[in-house]
């Protein structure tokens, strides 16, 4: 990593809670039921892929039960794609916030700062239990979203330093609002040796016995044979299942070409919608 990149990352970590990488008042479209009471807010951070958001909206409507509000926060670097995502949200009456980046930083830190902006500007204003889900995470069978919120927090465990550092992956995590609101300096940014979300180990998770916590179940499945993969990148041929009811396609942000895998995934998602 270059000296400039290192400097940007350290500045971002130090100032993450102040969100000076984003406009304080981004463009927003609020659904006509935005202020109606719900038990859970579901936030997805869109990034340069309108198709995943379109599938999420349709699959949530088909499979997810409970009183919830689905909110799209767009961190796209491509304004053309962002406009498509905005149009999809508005045509489906889905609340949409456009996050405008001012400085180019690492994808992980950019994602973390986007989550921080959401937490401090939307979550704390709405005061609902909430979850963050990745933009390529899709419900694949019927369930009640509120069933995931039976404790202070829940989600997919990520570990570093042989388990000494641990945190919830911010693409699949649930929080009781009153619980997390009791902590100061909550931050979903990176920290040394940890990816996005790792900073909260030092704020929240270090206070808990990891072995006493129930985490999400995860299963990785290969859907393409190795000979279809030209690079040694597992994400090219695998998908994840979480808690037997979510499908994570992996790498939908475009950092690697998953077009072959996407053909199979889109076929499966269409089958789910049409059955």
Description:
With 275 residues, this protein is of the alpha/beta class. The protein has one domain: Spore Coat Polysaccharide Biosynthesis Protein SpsA, Chain A, CATH 3.90.550. It contains seven helices and 13 strands. It has helices at 3-15, 50-63, 79-91, 107-126, 177-181, 199-203, 259-274, and strands spanning 28-29, 40-46, 64-65, 68-74, 95-98, 129-133, 137-139, 143-144, 153-160, 165-175, 218-222, 238-242, 246-248. The strands form three sheets. It has a seven-stranded mixed β-sheet with strand order 1-5-4-2-6-10-9, sandwiched between helices. A four-stranded antiparallel β-sheet has the order 7-13-12-11. A two-stranded parallel sheet has the order 3-8. A hairpin with a 3-residue loop joins β12 (238-242) and β13. The radius of gyration is 18 Å and the shape is globular. It starts with a helix and ends with a helix. Mean pLDDT is 84; it is low at 1-22.
Which secondary structure elements does this structure contain, and how are they paired or packed?
Elements: H1 3-15, E1 28-29, E2 40-46, H2 50-63, E3 64-65, E4 68-74, H3 79-91, E5 95-98, H4 107-126, E6 129-133, E7 137-139, E8 143-144, E9 153-160, E10 165-175, H5 177-181, H6 199-203, E11 218-222, E12 238-242, E13 246-248, H7 259-274
Parallel strand pairs: 2-4, 2-6, 3-8, 4-5
Antiparallel strand pairs: 1-5, 6-10, 7-13, 9-10, 11-12, 12-13
Helix pairs in contact: 2-3
Order of helices and strands: HEEHEEHEHEEEEEHHEEEH
For the termini, the CA-CA separation is: 48 Å
**CATH class value:** Alpha Beta
How many strand segments? Answer: 13
Count of alpha and pi helical runs: 7
What is the name of the CATH architecture? Alpha-Beta Complex
Q: Which bin fits the share of residues in helices?
A: 25-40%
Outline the biggest β-sheet.
7 strands, mixed
What do the pLDDT scores average to? 84
